[in-house]
Structures are given as structure tokens and as C-alpha cells.
Amino acid sequence: MTASSSTTLLNRKRLTDWVGVAPFTLFAVMFLIAPTLYLVTGAFMNAEGQPTLENIAGLFTPKILASYSISLKISLASAFGGALVGFFLAWAVVLGGVPSWIRSAIMTFSGVASNFAGVPLAFAFLATLGRTGLVTIILRDWFGFNLYATGFNLLSFFGLTLTYMYFQIPLMVLIITPALDGLKKEWREAAEMLGASTFQYWTRVALPILFPSILGTFLLLFANAFGAIATAYSLTGSTFNIVPIQLYAQIRGDVLHNPNLGYALALGMIVITGLSNLIYIWMRIRAERWQK
């Protein structure tokens, strides 16, 4: 084969590779990059299309600061709860000696539940833990326990956090399971040969290795909850003052209609979730380096 033929084949292969990537690139530009640039530009424009910083200054009003505060609290609480429960569930699946069919069932369910959100999830929780939900009625009629008499309210901070944890826990399981699988048996055997107890192995060997994966996944769960709107809006309507609902009210509402302020709210969400995802990627790279 001549050099010119090799060059032609190489160029064709490169062209084929770019053709394969083109649909994804087009999709990313149309539905991710272009809308983001539009939001960023709109955040610094007024209704007449003139440059202004009023929208950015509007982010520091008490009402919007309060919405960011409650969103951060819900995201942190659901991410912490999801990470904690999901880690121990994944540990039981990977290292707990459960039958293989249980692991397959849990991983399959986690793949489905991690994407179960919005109106269906809100309806499921209302039908289960609402004032006339199935579990609420069973506890009241069969066991004489009035759940709502204890102060529990599904349409509250705790209720929304609990709802978010439904998809946070399986997401944690899906992401942390490969990290637990990456723990080498030789590390534990070496620790035991040196006289380390199970507690010492986990605190001095396993957890330090898993820490980047755990922290990175926690940040991903935080970003996942911070940007969620469909579940919160379907469950609580516009009464719960979180940032996505405030953004929706500014862009689509009749009373608080100020699209450019909505763009500024979206810009703030992009910054927060973007930083969380960047730190997650960095942590994941560190974790993969440790487990090679």
C-alpha cells in the first residue's frame, strides 16, 4: 500500500469519526450551549434589550436570597441523606455477601428509580404519604398512629427532602457501586496481615480511598436536587419558595413576570450546579487514579 493510499484511508476514517460525533455535537449546541448563552446574555439585558446590572442586583433581594437559601438547604439535606443511605445500600450489595440476584434486582431498580421524578413521583408520594395516602390510612386505622398529628407534612421542607431522596438514593447506589467494586482484596488482606481490625481497615485504608468518590457523588446529588423543579412544583405548587419555582414564576407567571430576572436566576443556578459538577469530575478523576 502506498503512502498516498494510507493517507486517504486515514482521512476517510477521521471523516467517519466526525460524522459519528456530529449528531451529538449538534444536539449539545442546540439544547445546551445555545440556550445557556441566551440565558447568560438575557441576565445582563433589560426588557428593552439594553445592557444592565439590575437583574444581577435583583438576586440579592431578601425574597430571592431566601429562595436560594431554602434550595441550598433542601439540596444539601437530600444529598446527605441520599449519599448516606445509598452508600450503605451499595456496601450491602457489593461487600455484604447478598445473593447475586438481589444485587441485579437492586441495580435494575436503581436505574429506573434514579430517573423517576416529576409529576409521577409527586403523585406517588401523595398517594402514599399524603393526608389520605395509603400508608397514612393504614397507620391510622390498623395501628392507631396518626402520622400528621406528629407534625409531619409532606408539603414541607422535610416532606420535599424525603421525596427527593427517592431518586437520590438509587443515583448514589449506581455511582458508588463501581468504586466499591474497585476495592482490591489484596488491600484488606495486607491490612489484616499487619494486624489491622475491620474498623482500622475501613477508617485508614478503604474510606480514604473511597473519599473522593463519596464526596464527588455527594456534589453530584446536590446539583441534581438543586436543579429539580418538576417534582417540587407538582408536589407543592407555587407555595414553596425554591429557586426553580421562582424562576418559573418570573418567566411564565402573570404577577411576577420579569423574564430577564428569571434569566439571572438561571445564571445563578448554572454557576452553582456547574461548580458542583466540575468538582465532581475532578474528584472522580482522583478516585480513578487511586483505584487503577
UniProtKB/TrEMBL annotation:
Residues that span the membrane, as ranges: 20-40, 74-94, 106-130, 205-230, 261-283
Lineage: Bacteria, Pseudomonadati, Pseudomonadota, Alphaproteobacteria, Hyphomicrobiales
Entries under SUPFAM superfamilies matching the protein: MetI-like
GO annotation terms (biological process): transmembrane transport
Keyword vocabulary terms for this entry: Cell membrane, Membrane, Transmembrane, Transmembrane helix, Transport
Family note: Belongs to the binding-protein-dependent transport system permease family. CysTW subfamily.
Main location: membrane
Organism annotation: Gellertiella hungarica
PROSITE patterns: ABC_TM1 (PS50928)
Stated name of the protein: Putative spermidine/putrescine transport system permease protein
Keyword Membrane: yes
Topology of this chain in the membrane: Multi-pass membrane protein
Signal peptide stretch: none
GO CC aspect terms: plasma membrane
Domain ABC transmembrane type-1: 68-280
Location of this chain's protein in the cell: Cell membrane
UniProt xrefs under InterPro entries: MetI-like, MetI-like_sf
